[in-house]
Specification:
Elements: H1 2-8, H2 13-23, H3 29-33, H4 37-42, H5 55-62, H6 66-79, E1 82-84, E2 90-92, H7 94-99, H8 101-128
Antiparallel strand pairs: 1-2
Helix pairs in contact: 1-8, 2-5, 2-6, 5-6
């Protein structure tokens, strides 16, 4: 997963983390929990309400210095992955959603495999009791 993400983000995993934090505002956790892996991959709900976030909030959430977040957000804007409204709030673009499908799929497949591994370990542990 990290190999795919590193390649997609030009070796800059902080760039990926910042984009993930901004993107998390578009799909609240409570909504994502109710989705299966296949539903998430095929979700075409483009009318979802995004909750924009500012640079300071991204810095606080990530632990990355505010100035570094500002520079990386500018890079994400140059790439067309993020847009800033007139009040400075940030949100993910449709271009990011489309171009980052390989990263999204790799991340979700990793999480599914991790969950299956955890379930298998729990089952094995319970069988030995």
């Amino acid at each position: 997963m990290l190999i795919v993400l590193r390649k997609q983000f030009f070796g800059d995993l902080d760039l990926m983390l910042i984009l993930a934090i901004i993107g998390s505002r578009a799909l609240p956790a409570r909504q994502a929990r109710a989705m299966t892996y296949e539903e998430f991959l095929t979700d075409n709900n483009k009318n979802r309400t995004q909750h924009p976030i500012n640079i300071q909030s991204v810095a606080e959430c990530s632990g990355i210095a505010r100035e570094t977040v500002r520079r990386k957000v500018n890079k994400l804007i140059e790439l067309g992955f993020v847009e800033r409204d007139t009040s400075g709030m940030l949100k993910i673009t449709a271009q990011a959603t489309n171009e980052l499908v390989p990263s999204t799929e790799a991340s979700l497949q990793y999480l599914v495999a991790l969950g299956a591994s955890s379930d298998a370990a729990t089952k094995k542990s319970n069988e030995s009791l």
